[in-house]
Amino acid sequence: MVETVVSLGLAVDEKLVIKKNRLTSVNINEKAKRICIITGLHGDELEGQYVCYKLIRKIKENIKYLNGIVDIYPSLNPLGIDSVHRGMPTFDLDMNRIFPGSESGAMAEHVAAKIIEDIEGADICIDLHASNIFLREVPQVRVSEHIKDKLVPYAKLLNMDFIWVHPESTVLESTLTYSLNNKNIPTLLVEMGVGMRITQEYGDQLVEGIFNLMKKLGIWNGTVNPVRDPIISTEKEVNFINANSSGIFMPCVKHLDEIKREEKIGEIFNSLTGEIEEEVISSCDGVVFTLREYPVVYEGSLIARVLGGVK
């Protein structure tokens, strides 16, 4: 059932309307568990749109196996998606930097507070993001180090390639994921793919993982497929490979390739002179989990992230 989370009037008789689709089992009871699938906070991140579509279709076609509540929020920033804008247009702000918000605050803060209010009480949430237009990410879950013991067991069920356990100091307290975890609602931050595009195989991979997670939680009684065993970054160093020159980057490795220290990741060339400006070299042995997608680079541009110490 489609429900309105928040609706606010805008200029010229327009409205900001955020909706969710609630899917419930036939014989719902007070003890039924609830999972929330959240995406669309950034208008240029579209990977979640396909995931929502596939989840809804499969649940509806097999509703007899549903044993709980699934709330799907496909577009928390509908103005951004409609205008191909990362943030909330007109207000020039990042929706994921205003949580937990305030009902008595400005419009964006009010919207953030109503979103939190609607999610309150969920047993688990998945906050789904894509990368920007410059980088492509392998399907991964990002977990703050201080809550890894609580979240990593859930993350392992999601059929992701990589779980990035990162220092607490890098976590922004104004994000939706942080705010929900701070309210003791286990929330997994998923990031995959590239901005302004949909990577169908990544979406299918995550959908399998979500059904696996729901099965473990007792929300889904249908059969599920085996999920992959993810690489986990605990006690392994994430290395950032940056360009030292400007030009056009062409990779010679792929995602999840194992590379050696001093091995070439790609080349940066000058299309005017025909010269190679730089051979981009790995600084460690490891596995590539982030790779430059947009070919134009400048000095300092991020080319790749490599998880060191993986064999």
Automatic annotation (TrEMBL):
GO molecular function, one term: hydrolase activity, acting on ester bonds
Entry keyword annotation includes Mitochondrion: no
InterPro entries: AstE_AspA_cat, N-alpha-Ac-DABA_deacetylase
Keyword Zinc set for record: yes
Domain Succinylglutamate desuccinylase/Aspartoacylase catalytic: 32-215
Pfam families: AstE_AspA_cat
Cofactor(s) named in the record: Zn(2+)
SUPFAM superfamilies: Zn-dependent exopeptidases
Keywords: Hydrolase, Metal-binding, Zinc
Protein's recorded name: Succinylglutamate desuccinylase/Aspartoacylase catalytic domain-containing protein
Species the sequence originates in: Clostridium diolis
